[in-house]
Each structure stands twice: as structure tokens, then as C-alpha cells.
Amino acid sequence: MLNAGGYRISKRLYVTALPLVEKARDLSYKADNLVTMSFANAEIAKVKHANGEIEEAQVLIDNAITILTLSQKQKLAEDIDRSWRNFITQLEVVSVK
Predict the structure, then answer these.
(1) Across the chain, which distance is largest between two alpha carbons, in Å?
(2) What sign has the CA pseudo-torsion 53, 14, 3, 79?
């Protein structure tokens, strides 16, 4: 679900992506899988940012990075941060055109 949602986000199909990544987040939360939950929240943040919910999106990203950092999963935290910055850059490029 997370991969399918992420693919849809990369294609800017936010309406169909959101339910998939939310379901992935909810399932990973129930399974106490903080890594998958953090990545799902990062994908949800992308949708929220694209929909103009900038502050809420940033909170989700910050929380995901913090959870992974505190879990001593720094490389994964850096991966989320890098992916987030790339997403923001791509949005800015699209909005300039």
C-alpha cells in the first residue's frame, strides 16, 4: 500500500494516493512498526503540502525524522529528509512553469 501510494504521489495523483498511505500508516501503527509508520506519515505530508496544508505537513515530517533519529535509524531519517526536500523542490519547479 505504501509503495502504491508513493507511486501515485510521484504522479501527483493525490486523491487516490492518500487512502493508501493512510491505511499503510494505520496498519503499521497497529503492528508497532515505527519505521513504516514514519515513511507513511512522510508520504501523507507530501499530500498535505500539495493541498496547501503546509504547517501540518511539516509537523508530520519533523515527527517522522525525530522518531527515526531517536530509534537510532539515522540513515532512514536522512532518507525521509532528502525525499522531502526533493519533493518540495519539484513542487517549486512545477509552480514556476
Answers:
(1) 43
(2) negative
User: What is the C-alpha separation between 3 and 40, in angstroms, rounded?
Assistant: 9
Q: How far apart are CA 28 and CA 56, in angstroms?
A: 20
How buried is 53 (Cβ within 10 angstroms: 0-12 exposed, 13-18 middle, 19+ buried)? Answer: middle
Return d(Cα 38, Cα 9) in angstroms, integer: 16
pLDDT digits (tens, 9 = 90+) for 10-57: 999 999 999 999 999 999 999 999 999 999 999 999 999 999 999 999
pTM of the model: 0.93
Query: Nearest-5° angle of CA 81, CA 59, CA 62?
Result: 35
Q: CB within 8 A of 76, min separation 6: which ones?
A: 35, 38, 39, 68
| Cell (9 digits) for 74 | 539515522
